[in-house]
């Protein structure tokens, strides 16, 4: 599987083409949209999310509700475009019109792509950079992940995500799979421990009041993965490595770890390696899951646990110093409409980015021209874990 997204933040639409989805998979736009709405929620989002109501239209690759095996094209219309028609239109404009355009940006924001993107592509209106570097693009990635999740569900593989930390307020709970599953989406900060939720909201409010922003940590779980997906034989076939690349490619994500992650540095090996056990019903399994489901870049059948670290959002209402690219004078960076904390939404994005990497690895590992063929091979792999 592979995909390509296109579209600017305030342009007419986001488009994504996904290739490699097995044929005969039942797909409904409503199921994709349920996931799209989740990305738009979360305490601490700015006004943009109230303007847009993201919904995908499927325009290719699906006929009468089932995939054809051909590329699937999804379109998300930007409702906000009507207000940006003059600024973001495709047709050429006169120099005078350009001159009169009020929305030219020459003051790059620290921490965003503005300055370096402008240098790279020779843009003197930094809007040309921020329109694409904006996290609006993650809506398209959630759409891809939603299709991936529909495929994974058919294979009895399930995805969940939660918020672990916002601005230093942590949910320290070590949750078992059942508790994790049953407690997602129960509040607007997507945290399992309800007693922490209000503290997180207070922290978001406090940072918003100060004109500041905060980041956090999110966690994704993949349940019921067949064993031995990915490979140890080459660097770019290690599935944990590929997931790590996907996660760090999400806007503002600066770190990734698996299972107990960085805590592994402090603990002895006897408390980190997961002991191997066997019973005739489920085959090989582990007494713990410190490593988050990977050994040698391959799934070991335990739930995959991925942690992602998001930095605070760069656009601040209390702007930091920057330098105007025309006058070279010090300035306070331009304020573009912005969220103060997007960690709950980012947990949804992270889940979908991981979903795609997992679905991609599965369609590479097994013959997957059509869904029945893939299901049969997954069954066979699950038997291997018992019969080996
Ligand atoms: C769900 C989500 C929402 C975001 N919203 C904003 C935002 O409103 N304002 C902003 O400046 N950055 C926002 N970001 C982060 C920027 O897109 C990101 O910091 C920027 O593209 C620069 O990339 P880098 O931080 O990875 O270097 C958001 C990120 C995510 C994942």
TrEMBL record:
Required co-factors: FMNH2
CDD domains: Chorismate_synthase
Record: residues binding NADP(+): 39, 45
Annotated keywords: Amino-acid biosynthesis, Aromatic amino acid biosynthesis, FAD, Flavoprotein, FMN, Lyase, NADP
Name of one Pfam family that matches: Chorismate_synt
Catalytic activity: 5-O-(1-carboxyvinyl)-3-phosphoshikimate = chorismate + phosphate
NCBIfam families linked: aroC (TIGR00033), PRK05382.1 (NF003793)
UniProt xrefs under HAMAP family: Chorismate_synth
Function field: This reaction introduces a second double bond into the aromatic ring system.
Record-stated family: Belongs to the chorismate synthase family.
Name of this chain's protein: Chorismate synthase
């Amino acid at each position: 599987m592979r995909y390509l997204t296109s579209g600017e933040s305030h342009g007419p639409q986001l488009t994504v083409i996904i290739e490699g989805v097995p044929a005969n998979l039942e797909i409904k736009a409503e199921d994709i949209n349920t996931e799209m709405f989740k990305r738009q929620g979360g305490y601490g989002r700015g006004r943009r999310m109230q303007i847009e109501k993201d919904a995908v239209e499927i325009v290719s690759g699906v006929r009468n509700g089932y995939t054809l095996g051909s590329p699937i094209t999804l379109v998300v219309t930007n409702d906000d475009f009507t207000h940006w028609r003059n600024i973001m239109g495709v047709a050429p404009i006169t120099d005078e019109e350009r001159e009169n355009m009020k929305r030219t940006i020459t003051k790059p924001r620290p921490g965003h792509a503005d300055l370096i993107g402008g240098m790279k592509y020779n843009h003197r209106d930094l809007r040309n950079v921020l329109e694409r570097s904006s996290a609006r693009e993650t809506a398209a990635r959630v759409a891809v992940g939603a299709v991936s999740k529909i495929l994974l569900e058919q294979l009895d593989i399930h995805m969940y995500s939660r918020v672990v930390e916002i601005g230093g307020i942590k949910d320290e709970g070590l949750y078992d799979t059942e508790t994790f599953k049953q407690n997602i989406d129960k509040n607007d900060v997507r945290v399992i421990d309800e007693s922490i939720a209000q503290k997180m909201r207070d922290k978001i409010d406090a940072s918003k009041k100060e004109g500041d922003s905060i980041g956090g940590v999110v966690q994704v779980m993949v349940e019921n993965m067949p064993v031995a997906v990915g490979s140890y034989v080459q660097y770019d076939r290690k599935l944990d490595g590929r997931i790590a690349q996907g996660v760090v490619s999400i806007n503002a994500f600066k770190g990734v770890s698996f299972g107990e992650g960085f805590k592994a540095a402090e603990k002895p090996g006897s408390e980190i390696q997961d002991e191997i056990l066997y019973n005739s019903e489920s085959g090989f399994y582990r007494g713990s899951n410190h490593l988050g489901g990977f050994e040698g870049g391959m799934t070991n059948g335990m739930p995959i646990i991925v942690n992602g670290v998001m930095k605070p959002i760069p656009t601040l209402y209390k702007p930091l110093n920057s330098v105007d690219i025309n006058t070279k004078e010090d300035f306070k960076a331009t304020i573009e409409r912005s969220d103060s904390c997007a960690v709950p939404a980012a947990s949804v994005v992270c889940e979908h980015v991981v979903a795609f990497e997992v679905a991609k690895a599965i369609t590479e590992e097994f013959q997957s021209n059509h869904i029945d063929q893939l299901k049969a091979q997954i069954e066979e792999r699950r038997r291997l874990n018992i019969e080996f």
